[in-house]
Amino acid sequence: LKAAQNMCRDTELQREDRDALRNWLQQLFEKLSIRQTEDRQQYENACAANYSSTYWKVHAACEAARNGDDFRAAGDTLRAAQGVLKEAHPMKREQKDALWQQLQVAFETLRSRREAHRQQQEREWAQRQKEREQKKREWQSRQRARISGLEGAISRLEESISRDFDRLEELQKKRGDVRPGRREHEIRSQIQ
Q1: How far apart are CA 18 and CA 8, in angstroms?
Q2: Whole-prediction pTM value?
Q3: Crossing angle of the two packed helices 93-177 and 184-191, in degrees rounded to 10
C-alpha cells in the first residue's frame, strides 16, 4: 500500500482522481489497521488462553514436585508439563520463559527432595543395621553366658556322678561283705 501511495504521489493525475485514489488508499489503510488490530487481539487472546491452561498444568506439576510422596510420578508429571509447554503455541516469550523457569525450579526441588529421601533411607538402614548388630552381640553374649552356665552345671553333674559312682562302689563292696544269715538291721546299718 505504501508503494502504491508513493506511486500515486509521483504520478500526474487530475486533482479529483488523485483525491479519489488517496481516499481509496486511506480506506485500505484503515481496513488494514482494523484487520491488524483484530489479528493482534486474536493473538493476544490465544496467548492468554494458552498461558492460562499451560500455567495450571505447570503449577500442578510443580506442586506435585514440591509436596508429592511419589517421586517417580512427580517426575513423570513434570516431564508431561514440559511437553505441554513445548507444544503451547502461541504464547508470549516472557510468559513461556517464566513457566520454563518454574519447571526448572521444580525439577531441582524434586531432585533435592529425592536425594534427601535417599539419604534418610540410608541413615535409617544404617541405624537398623547397628541395632541388628547390637541385638546379635547381645544374643551371642546371652548364649555364651548360657553355655558357660550349662558347662558349670555339667561339671557339677559330672562331679556328682563321680561321687555317686564312688559311693556305689563302696556300697557294692559292703554288699559283697554281707553274709547270709546275718540279721537285716545289721545289714542296713552297714549300708548306711
Answers
A1: 7
A2: 0.58
A3: 140
